[in-house]
Amino acid sequence: MSLGVGQLGDRGVSPEALREPAIVARSAQRRAPRWLWIAAAAVLVPAVVPLAFLGARVLGATDAAWQVLFSGRTFELVLRSMAFTTAVTISAAVIGVGAAWLTLRLDLAWRRTFTVLIALPLVIPSYVLALTFLSFFGPRGLFADVTGFGLPSITGFLGAWIVLTLSTYPYVFLIVRSALRRLDPSLEEAARGLGASPWRTFRTITLPQLRPAIAAGSLLVALYTLSDFGAVSLMRFDAFTRVIYAQYAGRIDRTPAAVLAVVLILIALVVLWAEQRSRGRAQYFSRRPSRALRRLVVTGRQRVAAYGALVTIVLAGVGLPVATLTAWLIRGLARGDTIDMRWGAVTGSVTGSLAAALIAMAAAVPVTILTVRYRSRAAAWLDRSVYVVFSIPHITVALAVVFFGAQYLGPLYQSFTVLAIVYATLFLAQATGAAGAALLQVNPHLEEAARGLGRSERSTIREITVPLMWRGLLTGGALVFLTTMKELPATLLLRPTGFDTMAVRIWSTANEFFYARAAAPALLLLAISAIPMYLMLSRLRDPGT
User: Fold this and answer.
1) CA–CA distance from 357 to each of 138, 364, 476, 493 (Å)?
2) Per-residue confidence of the chain (545 residues) as pLDDT tens digits?
3) Contact status, residue 298 vs residue 226, Cβ threshold 8 Å
4) Is 380 exposed, middle or buried (0-12, 13-18, 19+ CB in 10 A)?
5) How many CA atoms lie within 13 A of 432 on its CB side?
6) Burial tier of 429 (Cβ tally within 10 Å: 0-12, 13-18, 19+)
7) How far is the first Cα of the chain from the last one, in angstroms, to the nearest whole number?
8) How far is CA 290 from CA 8, 24, 181, 245, in A?
9) Nearest to 229, CA basis, from 511, 523, 514
10) For the chain, N or C: smaller number of CB within 10 Å?
11) Distances from the Cα of 276 to the Cα of 27, 272, 273, 517, angstroms
């Protein structure tokens, strides 16, 4: 007997969900309130500035800039970047989904500890992770100093792929884990009751229900990989972003870089189109009340394999970087180096990240509701615009804001307010991705019932919709907070006078090869970021606990 979601429901997850097509249709056909569109438009205002700036620069491009666009070198860069992004996305999705399932569905000890440790690479800047791998591997690396045996260098595609996979898989892990907690366990229990193995149950029942969450996390991975500069630069891998940054730094006329940035936006649109095609039209909610799922009890080799997989992920993503940073710090102190910890940088990182997270969570509400509950062509373009901004290299957005702000923002130019808004705009896709995956699992019947009882649209959103999607909003806010903690290019260009962050301190010292001085703020950044992540994940009790 073949088991699968399709057998239990033609286009949904459960038989109950199949009885709700009229509700879903009414949600999609009902016109969105005007105030919701106004709120969403206000959210996109900061995004319009860099996009308009790029458009103006490209329209006024010289012949030399267009020659760059149609050169064979550019075509080669497009193919290389797409292949690299695909490789990173697939590997990050496999690790993220696998780790989420292992920490939630198996009866393993220390699940909460593993959850925090597995998510921690998200707070390590990609350039710091690249530096630690370069320092550890190689004929004269840290491993060779300790053991006497040199390891091969991992520069190029291999090193960039490993580093960015480890930097980005937490996007998939956190979003999928949040969605996995909300799944109706009855389908999995029914499949196992009919004799399906755990792997077959996961493949045919669990995985199809997780498709929106996997797509949202994978989209963030792909767009982050497209826009990353630090890791690919240090690993000497010629991705698209490295060439764009070289155009900005090495030319007086930066129009060719703007042209290449537009090409990067077009690549991001292709990625967005592919992600939306992967969603399908299935409904992912259930009318059954949430209840605890009995975890699978594994013994023997299966238990050893599960622990081995989790420990390997933790060692690669956290253990090796922390050990390398600690070794740098100890060696520096042994040589008599002084560790200059500037606590103003710590304050700047925390306040800037917290402000960005709160702004992004508030901004994600109208965008998510429009794109999920009021599906239309305009709402789809609204969703695409948010992700396109996320895909633009941060220095491109920052330069656009500098150009606009110097002429029109007056006293707000290079203020903390502008910096926090730019942060939230850059990483809004992280908040909307997690919130959208959560809202897709909320049965719209609850909102319809509230409106049928006389509640206004605004009251229904405030009292019903937002509370039901708060886990996704919290996950998205945590992603924005942790990513902002390590943001560098926009901070360098837009920070107010006297404003400093730990990311700036790490980059400035590591760029001058003062690894011992870079180790202390890097370790502190990791410790500070681990605290809110632990508190967030510990408050979200696992089903069955």
Assistant:
1) 39, 10, 8, 20
2) 334 433 333 333 443 433 444 444 455 456 778 888 888 888 878 877 766 776 776 777 767 677 777 777 778 888 888 899 999 999 999 999 999 988 887 888 888 888 888 988 887 888 888 888 888 887 666 777 777 676 777 888 999 999 999 999 998 998 888 888 777 677 777 777 777 777 787 777 777 788 888 888 888 898 888 878 778 887 888 887 777 777 666 555 566 777 777 777 778 778 777 776 665 555 555 555 455 566 777 777 888 998 999 999 999 999 999 888 888 888 877 777 666 667 788 888 889 999 999 999 999 999 999 888 888 888 888 888 887 787 776 777 777 787 777 777 777 877 899 899 999 988 998 899 888 888 887 788 888 888 888 888 788 888 888 888 888 888 888 889 888 888 877 887 788 888 888 888 877 776 666 667 778 888 887 777 777 667 666 655 555 44
3) no
4) middle
5) 30
6) buried
7) 33
8) 19, 21, 9, 49
9) 511
10) N
11) 19, 6, 5, 45
Of how many residues is the chain composed?
A: 545
* Backbone dihedral angles phi then psi of residue 32, each to the nearest 5 degrees: -75, 145
Distance CA 330, CA 326 (A): 6
Dig out the tokens for 531 from the structure: 């605290």
| Residues forming a β-bridge with 296 | 106
The residue whose two tokens read 């109208």 is 366
Helix residue ranges per DSSP H, 125-156: 126-136, 142-147
Cβ burial, residue 520 (10 Å; 0-12/13-18/19+): buried
Domain ranges (residues) in the chain: 29-284+298-539
DSSP 203: I
Dihedral sign, CA of 457, 422, 250, 230?
negative
Rounded distance between C-alpha atoms, residue 173 and residue 210, angstroms: 12
Q: Alpha carbon of 485 to those of 281, 427, 478, 490, 491: distances in Å?
A: 36, 12, 11, 12, 10
Q: Is 122:479 a contact under the CB 8 Å cutoff?
A: yes
Q: How far apart are CA 489 and CA 504, in angstroms?
A: 9
Tell me the CATH number for domain 29-284+298-539. Answer: 1.10.3720.10
In angstroms, rounded to a whole number, what is the distance separating the alpha carbons of residues 9 and 17?
8
Nearest residue to 515 via CA among 371, 332, 280: 332
- pTM of the predicted protein model: 0.74
Tokens, residue 158 = 């291999």
Instruction: Tell me how far the alpha carbon of residue 110 is from its chain's centroid.
Output: 25
